[in-house]
Amino acid sequence: MSGGVNVHITHIPFKNQARIWKETKSLADLNVFKKISVVSLEKERPSKIIENIEHLEIFRVYLKSREIKNIFFRRLFAYPEFIWRVYQQFKNEKVACINAHSLLTLPLASALKWRTGAELIYDTHELETETSGLSSVTKVFARLLETLFVRSAKAIFVVSQSIAGAYHRMYPAIPVFVVRNIPRKSQFSPGTSARLKSMLGLTAETLLFLYQGGLEPKRGIEVTLQAFETVSSDRHLVFLGDGSLNHLVQNHVLRFKNIHHLPAVPYKDLAEFTKGADVGLVLYDDVCLNHKYCLPNKIFEYCLTGLPAIVTPLLELKQLIHQYQMGWVLPNRSNELSNFINLVNREEIARVRVNMLKASRDLSWEQEEEVIKVFYGDLFGAEDRRVNTG
After folding, report:
1. 366 contact partners, CB below 8 Å, separation of at least 6
2. CA dist list (Å): 196 to 4, 41, 264
3. Are 5-182+365-379 and 195-362 the same fold in CATH?
4. Which contiguous run of DSSP H or E holds residue 261?
5. CATH for 5-182+365-379?
6. Which CATH superfamily does the domain covering 195-362 fall into?
7. ∠7-158-50 over CA atoms, to 5°?
8. 41: exposed, middle or buried (C-beta count within 10 Å: 0-12, 13-18, 19+)?
């Protein structure tokens, strides 16, 4: 054991962040750190600033600058305050390792590294400089920011092979490792559940299509809603999650009896809801390299519960579907989606479910975490093992 603290920094509230939870649990099992802390930036004032949950100490940061009425000054002071609060919390700790879970947290993690002498890991969940919605000017600034601060990182961890390739080309001197967002088998396993359809007042014979995750732009939500406006009445759609498109989804729920919405559920309960559907949806728009290279949590959550998936023809998603024959690849167009939804039947879904059993045997967090355990074990003095980089 290093005897030091491992600090994970995220710029969003720590609630259902499955990747950070899985990763830190793997590190806790490895027993190389005295303590593992997660820093989260909260939108609302937390009841507890420091909270201990199982293997984690969570430091919930609420910014006083949020209360500034003038938007310009609120934004001007928010990030410096975040840096100052976290820096003050850990500057005198014996910090052994700092994980920056986004580009926004990388400068803060770098400053903390130079103050404490800790190792820095760029633990990005996306191809940060190529995400949806970035303007050309913002992309240039993001690349400059990343290039400036990533040079002090010991390694980069990413979620797909294509993202690993992109980072390796940009920063060839820094090792890049792939750890995909696959659930633990103890949490997600093949099976069915009547709970979801029962909650929605549907019969077991109803074909239910599921979108789970954040309701955000460029994830095919608009196209999916349009498709279900015209499908057969026995084909139903449920959104399980929340986000900036809540209002759009709710509007369709009010207008169409076959469209439903449920709020996000705790991660420990998610598998039972996933098992209650017949087909899962991952219909991201092909608008950026980050989407083209993405492998989001939901595709693996569908996979491990035996839920066939419809995906758009994005590079990594298409390769996964074809490798295991675990679903269908469709253009992100409402007319083609609605036609397929009307034609697909239980026999076809059952045929694909058989293929899912092989995929669920091959894919698990228990396999992915070996990359984490080998790297951190080498770095902090555990068993001497080696792992190939991406």
Report:
1. 184, 185
2. 44, 32, 13
3. yes
4. strand 259-262
5. 3.40.50.2000
6. Glycogen Phosphorylase B; (3.40.50.2000)
7. 20
8. buried
274 with 160: CB under 8 angstroms? Answer: no
Return d(Cα 373, Cα 28) in angstroms, integer. 10
List, in sequence order, the alpha helices (H) in the chain.
18-30, 71-90, 106-116, 136-150, 161-170, 195-200, 221-228, 246-255, 267-274, 289-292, 297-304, 315-324, 334-343, 346-362, 365-379
Answer yes or no: are the C-beta atoms of 304 and 280 closer than 8 Å. no
Q: Name the pairing type of β-strands 56-62 and 50-53.
A: antiparallel
Asked whether 99 and 138 are in contact (CB, 8 A), the reply is no
Angle at 123 (CA atoms; ends 50, 307), nearest 5 degrees: 95
Nearest to 203, CA basis, from 241, 163, 151, 258 = 258
Tokens of 38: 């997660």
Q: List the chain pLDDT tens, one digit each, 390 residues.
A: 567 999 999 988 887 678 898 999 999 999 999 999 999 888 888 877 888 888 888 999 888 888 888 888 888 888 889 888 888 888 888 999 999 999 999 999 998 998 889 999 999 999 999 988 888 898 999 999 999 999 999 999 999 999 999 999 999 999 999 999 999 988 888 888 889 999 999 999 999 999 999 999 999 999 999 999 999 999 999 999 999 999 999 999 999 999 999 998 888 889 999 999 999 999 999 999 999 999 999 999 999 999 999 999 999 999 999 999 999 999 988 899 999 999 999 999 999 998 888 888 889 999 999 999 999 999 987 644 444 444
In the chain, where the domains are located: 5-182+365-379, 195-362
Both tokens of residue 325? Answer: 């024959």
Question: Which residue type does 259 have?
Answer: I
The CA distance from 267 to 371, in Å, is 23
Task: Provide the terminal-to-terminal Cα distance of the chain, rounded to the nearest Å.
Answer: 27
Distance between CA atoms of residues 197 and 206, nearest Å? 8
Yes or no: say if 146 and 124 are a contact pair by the CB < 8 Å rule: no
Dihedral sign, Cα of residue 23, residue 27, residue 30, residue 36: negative
Residue 234 structure tokens:
């026995």
